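Re: folding output
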Amino acid sequence: MRNSNFSFSSSLSKGFTLLEVLIAIAIFAMLSLTAYQVLQGVLRSGEISKEHSESLTQLQRAMLIIEQDFTQIVARTSRDESGEQDKLRVITAGSSLFDSEDQGIEFNRLGWQNPLGLLPRSNILRVRYRLQEGQLQRLYFLYPDLVAGQEPEVQVLLNNIEKLSFRFWNNGWQSTWEPEKKLPTGIEINFTSKHYSEIRRVFLISAGEVIQ
């Protein structure tokens, strides 16, 4: 009887020591930290992938708008607020134009749909491109001939843009376009993005008579 009682009481006294509990807690904490780091890495990778996808979508949308504008350029001069039309060119381009922090450009394009002329605007769209506050901005007017007090609509195409420039093809590339009533046969747009570095596109321009 004495031997059996001693064995029973000894088994009850056995358990985890403080050191064993601390080791178990440390192991559990390390496993939890590792799992948290893996989860954070997966979430961060998902965020980076989403940001890249959205940025690429924005770039594709911007390039589509730019292509539509430049491939539908029309040789039309426009009046400014002063009403003097003969001094203007079919394409106006240069540094610091239209409050641009680099180069800017202005021209008229066809193809702005106005079914049956029901909308209070022309089917010719006057557009400008400029760089301002790190944004590639597209400005457009409801009418190709400006009236006093008319302000353009501003559309932000891309953010984080550092440089913007244009070149014109006429038996060779030119940094400026001098002929007042003639279109070049090609226009190059070149801009530098923080995400995609340098982006360059060249558009062929159709020749046409000047529209007054």
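--- second protein (sequence, then structure) ---
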Amino acid sequence: MQLTVLGVGSSAGTPVIGCQCATCTSNHPKNKRTRCSSAITLASGEVILIDTGPDLRSQALREGMKRVDAILYTHTHADHLHGIDDLRAFCQLQKHQIPLYGKQDAMDHIAAKFGYTLREPSDYWDLPVLSVNAIEQSFELFGMTVTPIPVKHGRLDIFGYRIGNMAYLTDVSEIPESSFELLQGLDILLLDCLRYTPHYTHINLEQSLAYASLINAQNTYLIHMTHEMEYDALTEKLPQHVHVGFDGMKLDF
């Protein structure tokens, strides 16, 4: 399988509109960050998205994506959900319904806010054709086991996900003790790292490094970063097996 990091940016993206900081004015391509999302391409060809941020269209064009077969939602904040309408392009290309998976409250939110997308296939593909599927525990998807990882995002209970020896944890303020047993033996961990200073709904660099050490994946990649995190400066601060993620990064697992 291959994971393509579609975006590693926070809700504002980088550069931030109107900002003249060193990161936002940098010419370094790895300082250009779209909103946080990833795509997993299975050996059998299916593509699973993790979240549909508002930059999905530009990310799909950049990566040459031509199919999406399922979406795993971590939660339904705008920067992780509001690209949902762009799924219609993949429905038009593939002529089949795309299933969405996530917590019950996330599926309820999508049904309430984007109910027009929840449709059965017909002769018309002018809108997304999606279905909601609430999950609470591991399930099979295209022959792979997908394990939801409960984490805290401020007061919210949300999901990260594990597929094979890869885990994806975005928008984390705390990892409950019970979730650590689901994170053993990882080769790849993608982990929230909002900024240097503390934040009440996200872990900062110090906390991210502490969690990376506890989980002890072979390699950890930092995601969901604000413009506070300049790529080269941050890279110099990291231990050997922790890396700064970037848009377009590809990881085999």
